[in-house]
Amino acid sequence: MKSEAVLQRAAQVCADRGGKLTTKRRQVLAGLLASDKALSAYDLADKCKEAFGVTLFPMSIYRILEFLQTVGLVHRLKTTNKFIACAHIACDHAHDTPQFLICRECNRVEEVGIANSLSEGLAKTLDALGFRLMNDQVELECVCHNCSATA
Question: Angle at CA 113, nearest 5°, toward 110 and 119?
C-alpha cells in the first residue's frame, strides 16, 4: 500500500482512538514508514529536517513517538531503544503478538507475528514458576539473507 494511503489510514486510526495525526506526528510516522531500519529520535530529527525542512527536537519526537505507540502505529524496540512503524497500519483485523527480526549486520527490521496462544502458554508456564510476564514482545537478533550472502 502506498505511504499516502497508509498515512490516511493512520489518521483514521488516531481519530478512532480519540487522537489526531497532527502535521508533526504525520512527518515522524512518514519518516518511519520510509525506512526499513529502526530509527532513534535523533535519526528521525535528521529525516524530518531532510525530507520536510522542519526542525523537530528529539524530546518532541519522543513525545510524538509515545503518542504513536499508544495508538498502535509505532513499536519501540527495547534492545536498541529505536522505533519502527507498525507493519499492520493498513489492516482492519486483529494481529498476533509482534515479534521483531533484527539483522545485526544492516539493522533491517521485519515485524512478524507469533501466535497469541504461544504467548499465553508462556505466561502460564511463567506463572507456574512464580513469575509474571510483563511484556510479550520478542526481539530476535538475526542475519538477513542479503547480509549472509555477502559474508
Answer: 130
Which CATH number do you get for residue 127?
A: 3.30.1490.190
Report the C-alpha gap between 128 and 122 in whole angstroms.
Answer: 10
Q: What is the DSSP string of 1-33?
A: --HHHHHHHHHHHHHHTT----HHHHHHHHHHH
> Are residues 111 and 105 in contact, defined by beta-carbon separation less than 8 angstroms?
no
Domain that includes residue 64, residue range? 3-85
Its pTM stands at: 0.85
Q: Which of 101, 72, 70, 96 is nearest to 85 (CA)?
A: 72
Number of structural domains found in the chain: 2
pLDDT tens track for 97-112: 788 999 999 999 999 8
Residue 140's beta-bridge partner residues? Answer: 101
